[in-house]
Design a protein that fits this description.
Two copies of one chain form a homodimer. By secondary structure, chain A is an alpha+beta fold. The first copy, chain A, has two domains: about 1-90, Orthogonal Bundle (Arc Repressor Mutant, subunit A), CATH 1.10.10; about 90-150, Ferric-uptake regulator, C-terminal dimerisarion domain (Dna Ligase, domain 1, 2-Layer Sandwich). Chain A is about 45% helix and about 20% strand. Chain A contains seven helices and six strands; from the N terminus they run ααβααββαββαβα. Chain A has a three-stranded antiparallel sheet with strand order 1-3-2. A three-stranded mixed sheet of chain A has the order 5-4-6. In chain A, β2 (about 70-75) and β3 (about 80-85) form a beta hairpin. In chain A, α2 crosses α3 (about 40-50). The longest helix of chain A is centred in the middle third of the chain and has 13 residues, at about 55-65. In chain A, about 25% of the residues are buried. At the A-B interface, β2, α6 and β6 of A face α5 and β6 of B. β6 (about 125-140) of chain A pairs antiparallel with β6 of chain B. The first copy, chain A, binds a DNA duplex through α4. Chains A, B: Belongs to the Fur family. Chains A, B: It comes from Jeotgalibaca ciconiae. Chains A, B: Its cofactor is Zn(2+); Mn(2+); Fe(2+). Chains A, B: This is Transcriptional repressor. Chains A, B: Keywords: DNA-binding, Iron, Metal-binding, Repressor, Transcription, Transcription regulation, Zinc.
DNA sequence: CTCGTTGCAAATCCTTTGCACGTCC
DNA sequence: GGACGTGCAAAGGATTTGCAACGAG
């Protein structure tokens, strides 16, 4: 499942002059398990196994991992950054579906974007190295729920 | 050029129960001139014509405009939100090219994405209402500059 | 020893809020 | 004179930084 193994990440870290400390290892393990977690969420998970870990360490680790291109930082509209391990499968084709109703984020791997990328490179002479694509909308579940309830919920999505 | 005129925006505001105050008008004018400005940048521009305006007012105005769907708020990876007027032409098809070398943001209107949207709706039963697409890469200018300089600049893009 | 790493607390940055004062019907 | 808007200052929340202590080689 995870072509990005702990071992390969350790190597990357070392090549960058960093060590795989227990805190970093634990952080990476969390990242390997779950995607698009925020720093705070990762911190919470870590607390269970490493109660002494500090939030700052998590941020520092995530910064390093992102610099080394091991991890992918994405800023969501709620102002929170989420982090994903870059796996082989999502290195290129990776997009999010964010439901505006329930807030759930679904992850999609699909190469539909790679065509778009090629188009962009050709049409605009822009060398694409990465992308970030999020669709905002209504997920299947919420759509169905809507059908059964009052038909005008669309505007009330704000706090 | 701007199908979104001051007049039509005034109407939208009033329909939403808001007034087009001088501060709001000035803010809208800035937004009509330039795209993807941050709140701070908009504030700077405004200072020239309305020296007494407060940053908070700018934020409040932007919030209203975004709620009314007049403006589009996009969070960039630097943690700053930028705002664009939603014009007819970019209401649907709107993407950014962010150069990782010089930091410039170029805006593209292209309906390539609408096909993708349809695909997503079909394949994943997700009703798309909006999207946010940014390509990270190297713009034409920087790409050409690179060719003339040392060939290994790729890793040093950090502060 | 030395250097990278850590936890904590303080600092920072962007953004939001509280509040008293203005303004417009 | 009540509701909406404003500027300012303070608060807020996420992230970063300074620093003394720690730990492996």
């Amino acid at each position: 499942m995870s072509e990005q193994s702990l071992a390969s990440i350790k190597t990357s870290l070392q090549e960058g002059g960093f060590k795989l400390t227990p805190q970093r290892e634990a952080t990476v393990k969390v990242l390997l398990e779950k995607d698009h977690l925020s720093a705070e969420e990762i911190f919470m998970h870590l607390k269970q196994t490493n109660p002494d870990i500090g939030l700052a360490t998590v941020y520092r680790t995530l910064e390093i991992l992102t610099q080394l291109n091991i991890t992918h930082k994405v800023l969501f509209e709620d102002g929170l950054a989420r982090y994903d391990i870059r796996r082989e499968s999502n290195k290129q084709f990776h997009l999010h579906l964010l439901c505006m109703e329930c807030g759930k984020i679904k992850e999609i791997y699909d190469d539909l974007i790679s065509d778009l990328e090629k188009e962009i490179e050709k049409k605009y002479h822009f060398q694409v190295e990465d992308h970030r694509l999020i669709f905002h909308g209504i997920c299947t579940d919420c759509y169905q729920k809507r059908q059964n309830k009052t038909p005008e919920l669309s505007a009330e999505t704000r706090k």
